Amino acid sequence: MKISVRPMTLEEVWEFVLDIHHSFHTHLKHFGYTINSFVPKPKHPIIQEMFAKEALNDADINKYYNFFKNEIYDVTHLTKYQETLTSYIAPTMDRCINEKLVPLLKSWNTTMPQELEILCTYGAGASYSRKSDDKAKIIFRMSRYPDDKEAMLNTMLHEFIHLLIEDSIIQKYNVPQNFKERIVDIIGTEFFGKHIQERFINPFVDKYITPENIKKDLPCSIAKMMADYLTLQTINQANKR
């Protein structure tokens, strides 16, 4: 797999901010996310004003875009970890993936992308996108990310697990956001020693996503989990009537 690293352009960053605005108001805020990790300056009044609005009209978009272009975007902000990402993160990540995840592709019913592009933008954290079997992206929100290469590596591996299982498992079985994060945390801890996100700890998920099930048949385990979850929901709803 070829891994490349580059900063996002102004237009790419702005499109990402608009996408995050939409995702934040449609589902992310309902799972405990705040805007802090997604935006350049979370305490800036203009940023606060933008994200306080659930819907943006054309005038809003034009206003906030001009502010972003004139007051925030500077490509040098997005290149401060370029050397670390290119010389350490990319090759180490490639080795870890080949050693730990490639042997599981068949049992997970998924494929490895031929190209992975790491795109650097504002904020702290990361997200992922896979538009085809051949190409995938990790959007690294790095402008306020700590200068810790091991933390960066863990974040990249976490996002890569996401993009491997998103279409073939998560979307197929309609896994909710909080379950999805717990599944990826369990896999990351099993193979890479990744830290756990405490707000997503879930004993129900843990019963199904065991080390043995991860290696033997992850899709079947998640299918069983979601079937049991829907049954419990139906029972709970019936009891409330």
Summarize the structure.
With 241 residues, this protein is an alpha/beta fold. Helix content is 58%, strand content 10%.
Features:
globular, 9 helices, about 60% helix, alpha/beta, four-stranded mixed sheet, single chain, about 240 residues
Mean residue pLDDT: 93
Shape: globular
Gyration radius, in Å: 19 Å
| Termini Cα gap | 53 Å
Point out poorly predicted stretches.
none
Order of helices and strands: EHHHHHEEEHHHH
Structural category is alpha/beta
Helicity, in percent?
Answer: 55-70%
Strand order of the largest sheet: 1-2-4-3
What would you say this structure looks like, in words?
It is built from nine helices and four strands. The protein is globular, with a radius of gyration of 19 Å. By secondary structure, it is α/β, with parallel strands linked by helices. Helix 4 packs across helix 6 and helix 6 packs across helix 7 (177-192). A hairpin with a 5-residue loop joins strand 3 and strand 4. The chain has helices spanning 10-26, 45-52, 58-72, 82-101, 105-108, 149-171, 177-192, 203-208, 211-240; strands spanning 2-7, 115-121, 125-129, 135-141.
